[in-house]
Amino acid sequence: MEPTFSRRQALQLSVAGASAAAIAAMSPTQAIAQTTPTKPATIPRPSIKPRSAWATNHPVKGTLKAEQDVRFLLIHHSASSNSYSADEAARQIQSFYNFHTSSEKGWPDVAYNFFVDRFGIIWEARQGSIAGAVQGDATGGSQGHAMLCCFIGNHQEAPISPEARNSMVQLLAWLGDTYNVDTSPGATATFTSRGSNKWPQGQSVTARTISAHREMSLTSCPGDFAFNTIRNELPEAVTKVRNSYATAPSPTTQTAPSSTAVTDLVSSIAPATTNTETTTSEAADTETALTVQPTVTAAISPDSTETSRTDQNSQDGSNAGLYAALLVSGGAATALTVAAIARRKNQKPHS
Prior knowledge:
Blueprint: H1 7-25, E1 48-49, E2 72-77, H2 89-100, E3 114-116, E4 122-124, E5 146-151, H3 162-178, E6 188-192, E7 204-208, E8 210-212, H4 224-232, H5 234-246, H6 259-269, H7 323-329, H8 332-346
Parallel strand pairs: 1-4, 2-5, 2-8, 3-5
Antiparallel strand pairs: 3-4, 6-7
């Protein structure tokens, strides 16, 4: 005999299932509370290769600090070769890591939050930067208050490729939206420097919200070609992307209950043994000093719950009628289960 559900039980399980799936999908770095943005982004995150795509055997070597106050976006270049192949981009990043974490620099990880290669691929650089704001480092010292994005290449010698430019625009639009930075042409931000060789610690700085490294430190970075693009093109291009999403209709959102609430809800419907799934942080990244939860425990999903059997005569309607409501409430797995049960119930017995 197939298990059946009352309307109320099925709807409760559908909400529980949706919330459990969302909780299970979280990575450990997304649980770094102090670095998580305080507002949901309306611009979808562009495709970004995670740190694990290049950082095998390249662990964080010291303390990483959360950036609590993002005021602007700062662009660098790596001052490296412009002729690398797509397959060589990861090795380029590894070489930056080796230099940045050497005794000469002494930084705990690569200096930047993101890289953009000449093929338009965006890479997570410093660990945790996809999940939230992490303080970077820079030659000449860091004034702070920024997310750091770096073109891979030497843009004193050559212009930025169209692919790299377009990807940087998408990245800056997402970061600006995520951290509520006004990226419109002419927009500025004022903050107190934490200390660079151009802006000593404690000095008030007013910077354009999309700035070049040379505006914050005594350096030629990111090269004249990139500097001209940053100053004359990027603010308008980034703002155009952001405005295109601002005028689009917003999707309807629902607030999911906490993992504890989901577990309590399922337990109240039918006594069951709780099964958990554990996600561990990547081995290559275990040396970070950020506060990372070592495991993420998923609340019970409908597929892992032994639901008590209910007398068929106690049902107040056909389970098949619940399918549309279950989909709306977000419990797709439960909806499919109930629909399958209903179909089997409605089949004629074999002769």
